[in-house]
Backbone:
C-alpha cells in the first residue's frame, strides 16, 4: 500500500482533526462517553473475575501447604501471582479487542464524515476479527516487554542493594549524596528508556485501527503497514503523540472530566495524520466527474 514519508505535521494534524469533527463535535463527545463507560465496566468485571480466581487459588494452596516446608509455602505464595498474570494476559486481549472495535467504529465514522459521505453516528461497530488478531499480537509484545522490564528492574534493584547500600552510608550514619545520586540517575535513565520505548511503539502502531476501519485490512496487514509507514513518519508522529498527551494531561488536571472533551479531538487528530500519510478514500471530495461531451463543433449539431 502506498504511503507518504514525512507527511505528518503535528500541529496541522490537530487543526485538521478539529476541522473534521467541529460540526459533529458533541456527537463524538457522546460516543466517547458511551464507549468509555463500556470499557470501564468491562475492565472492572474482568478485573473482579481475575481477583476472585486468584484469591480462590491462593486460599486453596495456602490450606494445602499449611504443614509443608518453606519451598511449598513459597510456591503457594508465588503460583497465584503467576496464574493472575496469565489470566490478565487473556483479559487484556479481550479489552484490547473491544476497545479496538470501538475505535474502529469512530475511525470509520470519521472517514465517512471527512469525505462527505455522511454524519457521525453509532452504527459503525464491526471489525471484531481484525481487532482480535491485533490484540493477540500486541498483548504478546506487551507481555514480553513487561517481563523484560521487571527482570531488568529487579536486576538493578538487587545490584543497588548488593553494591550500593553499604557504601551509601558513611561512618557517621549519613547517606553519601554522590552514590545516592548515581543510583537515582540509573533509575531515572531506566524510566526514561521505558517511556521512549513505549512512545516509539505507540507511534509505530498509531495507524493500525484507521487502516482496519478505512481500508478494511486484516489485523496483521494493518500492523505491518502501520509499522512501515510509522518508520517513515516517526519524528512527526512522536511530536504529535507528545502534544496529544499534553492535551490529555490538561484534561486530567481539569478534574478528569476534561478528558471527555479532549478525547474526540485526540482521535480525530490521529485520523487526520493517517489521512496525510495514506490519503483519503471514497467520498464526494475524491470524486471529480468528467466534463460532459461537447458536440457543438460536430456536423449536425
Residues:
Amino acid at each position: 500500500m502506498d504511503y507518504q514519508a514525512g507527511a505528518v505535521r503535528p500541529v496541522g494534524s490537530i487543526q485538521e482533526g478539529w476541522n473534521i469533527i467541529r460540526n459533529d463535535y458533541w456527537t463524538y463527545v457522546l460516543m466517547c462517553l458511551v464507549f468509555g463507560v463500556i470499557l470501564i465496566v468491562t475492565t472492572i468485571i474482568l478485573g473482579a473475575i481475575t481477583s476472585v480466581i486468584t484469591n480462590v487459588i491462593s486460599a486453596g494452596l495456602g490450606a494445602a501447604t499449611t504443614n509443608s516446608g518453606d519451598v511449598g509455602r513459597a510456591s503457594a505464595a508465588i503460583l497465584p501471582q503467576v496464574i493472575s498474570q496469565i489470566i490478565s494476559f487473556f483479559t487484556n486481549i479481550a479489552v484490547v479487542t473491544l476497545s479496538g472495535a470501538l475505535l474502529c467504529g469512530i475511525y470509520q465514522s470519521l472517514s465517512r464524515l471527512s469525505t462527505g459521505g455522511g454524519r457521525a453516528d453509532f452504527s459503525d461497530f464491526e471489525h471484531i476479527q481484525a481487532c482480535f488478531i491485533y490484540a493477540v499480537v500486541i498483548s504478546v509484545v506487551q507481555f514480553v516487554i513487561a517481563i523484560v522490564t521487571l527482570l531488568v528492574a529487579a536486576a538493578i534493584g538487587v545490584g543497588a542493594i548488593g553494591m550500593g547500600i553499604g557504601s551509601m552510608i558513611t561512618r557517621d550514619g549519613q547517606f553519601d549524596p554522590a552514590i545516592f545520586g548515581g543510583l537515582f540517575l540509573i533509575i531515572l535513565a531506566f524510566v526514561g528508556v521505558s517511556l521512549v520505548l513505549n512512545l516509539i511503539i505507540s507511534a509505530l502502531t498509531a495507524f493500525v485501527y484507521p487502516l482496519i476501519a478505512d481500508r478494511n485490512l486484516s489485523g496483521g496487514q494493518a500492523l505491518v503497514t502501520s509499522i512501515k509507514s510509522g518508520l517513515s513518519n516517526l519524528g512527526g508522529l512522536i511530536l504529535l503523540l507528545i502534544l496529544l498527551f499534553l492535551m490529555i494531561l490538561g484534561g486530567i488536571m481539569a478534574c478528569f472530566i476534561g478528558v471527555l472533551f479532549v478525547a474526540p479531538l485526540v482521535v480525530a487528530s490521529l485520523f487526520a495524520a493517517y489521512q496525510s500519510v495514506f490519503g483519503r478514500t471514497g467520498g464526494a471530495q475524491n470524486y471529480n466527474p468528467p466534463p460532459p461531451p461537447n458536440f457543438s463543433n460536430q456536423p449536425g449539431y
Remarks:
- Residues 10-282 form one domain.
